[in-house]
Every structure is written in structure tokens, then in C-alpha cells.
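Hi team,

Filling in the usual template for the complex we talked about on Friday. All components are listed, including any nucleic acid strands or ligand strings, so the model treats them as one assembly.

SUBMITTER: L.P.
PURPOSE: interface mapping
COMPONENTS: two
RESIDUES: 371
SEQUENCES:
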Amino acid sequence: MGDKSGLGCRHIIGITLPSWGVTRAITRCSSPHFPPGTNKYMAKEIIKDKDVVMANHALKSPVKLAQRLAQLQEALKIPNLGADKKKEFEERIALIVKALK
Amino acid sequence: MQQVLRKALVAEAVCEVDRSNSFYIHNPYSSQPTASVAAIDGSYAVTAWTTTEDTLSITDEVTYGEHIYDFERLLANYDLFANRTNEQAYAVAQAIDIYVVNNLLEAGTTDYTTPAGGFTTAANIPVIISNLCSKVMGYAEAYKGLFLIIENTDVPGFIQAQLASGFSYSDAALNNGFIGHYGGVDIYVVRTGTFTDATTTTASGSTTWSNSGRRVFGVKNVATYAQPGGLNFEEKGVTLKTGKEFVTYGYVGFKLWATKAALVVDILLA
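RESULT (copied from the run log):
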């Protein structure tokens, strides 16, 4: 069996897996798309800590986060913005600024 | 048996779905040419051009498993396997829906901030819809149809605006209730708690999103989500246990294609 995937990853614990359709092969393989241990870091419950979410977001898509920071800062200038929304936006801005540092 | 209280699934209405057994979907694009207009003289320039790879990868799996002991099956008055597999299939489908909708919002590169009050203020609705439409109109793709996904907490402003619109539209709203089409935009309502913040969890898989307080608008079918093989089901005997263990699972990947990312609008509720 050759490497039909072109990704150079077929051997797991000495076993040559029959095809890419094998789920275990994908999740445990050494492909750059599924680095070893990917699942190890996956939380089994929703992460409530906003700092953790934002820090990960900053790692994965800093451009998107910067775009949202600018949008939130602009939104603070809305003249009749409610106090609750103002507080929410300020908290959000603080989170993003901290994550992007 | 009764079904659990189910939420609406909307992803398939706004995205293309690929169910082929591909790990990758290749969809490269080449640079955009701009034609030159000049006074006629029979000459032209040759411009360099490039191709950029754009791919969708299957990155996540969605699973749910249970065990029904034989005494549970035998002593129940209902077909427990049929009921639980049906509920499992829904649970997996719903998780995929939330995954797709949040990744869609996350991937949109155009942004828009609503007037204060957001969708809950009736007077804002025509303003928001018109502003959103202006973000994507003029592109050929806009004729594929427009969508807006809101949460149920946004519905009051919409219904009030529809009831007060006047004439036949208002009459239709008064007679039939919420109209899922406003100003040329198809409105999809999901339950509150759909747009959230999540990172590498059982909700977001390997992806991350921070979509709390946001909604998504855009052109239909410019994003693709892949669900190779659809939903799968396995039933197996387990040692030391009577009955069967059974699991429902599916794989999912999402991509808002690079050349169309501006056609999805990231809405901030003010």
C-alpha cells in the first residue's frame, strides 16, 4: 500500500492503515494538518474563561480579532449606546487587547 | 415516545454541502485581471498572474454514544433503539449546525455595527436590512439570494416592524405571524445561545470562535461545509454488559472561500 494521500503519513504504531477513511489514522497521524496530540488539548466541557478563548483566537486568527477590536472601539462612539452595551463593549475590548499583546 | 425539544437547523439553507468522501476539497483561485481601456492603437500589455490554493479540510468529528441494556429494551413499551438513534442523529446534526454557523460568522470579512438597540428595536429593522444589503449588492453573487441568521431574542423587533409595515405585508404578518423574508433577505431564527465564545471544546472542535453578541448576514451558498458520508451509526455488543452500545457520528469541515469572504457580514449588536 503506497501513500495515496500525498501527505506522507500512513504508519501509526507500526501499522499500515488501509485508507484515509480510517478515523483513528486521521486523529492520531503525524500530518501537519492533525499534529500529534491535537485531541489531548481539546476540553471536554465548554471553556467559560473568556481569556482562554480570546488567547486561542488571537493565536488562530489575529487579523480577525484586530478587525473586531476596531469595530468595537468604533461602536463605543454610537451616541445613544446603552450603558449595558457600553460596559459589554469595554469588557470585550479589554479582553481582545490583552489577548493580542 | 415524545421527541426532545429540538432547535431549528439552518446551515444547509445558507451553505453548500459536500458529502463526498474527500479529506480535502481543492478550490484554488487565480488573480483577478483588470482590463485596460485606452485610446485605440493596436497594442496591449501582458500582466503576470498567479494561482493561490484554497482548500477545505475535514478537521473535526461529531459523536454521541449511549448504551441500552437488554432489560431496558425488553421491558420498555416503546422502541428505545429507534427513539434514541433518532435523538442521537438530531444531536449530531445540531452540533454540526452550530459549528457551521459560528465558523461562517467567524470567517466573514465584512463588518457592520447595528444602531443602538440592535434587532430588538423595531425602528432599526429597515435601517439594518438596507445597510446589510448595501454591503453585498453590486456583486454578481448577490443574486444567489441573501440570508440573515438571528437568535430568537432578536425576533420581537422583527415582528413589530412587520406588523407595522402597512398594507398587504402588514396584513400578512398580522394573519400569519413572523414572515421569514424581509426586504429581499431570508431570515433564519436559531435559539439563543447559538452564537457564543468557544475554543477547542466539544462545541467548537478544533476551531475557535468568539461570536457572543454577534449575528451573521450574507450571500447564500458562498461557503461550503463538508460532511463526508453524512451521519453514520454503529451498534455493538460490549463485554460484561447486556444489550448494545450504539453511537452516531459524522465528520465536518468548513470553508468560506477566500474570494467570497467579503460577502459574509459579521454583525455587532449595539
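MY TAKE: The two ends of chain B are 43 Å apart (CA to CA). Chain B has six helices and 17 strands.

Thanks, L.
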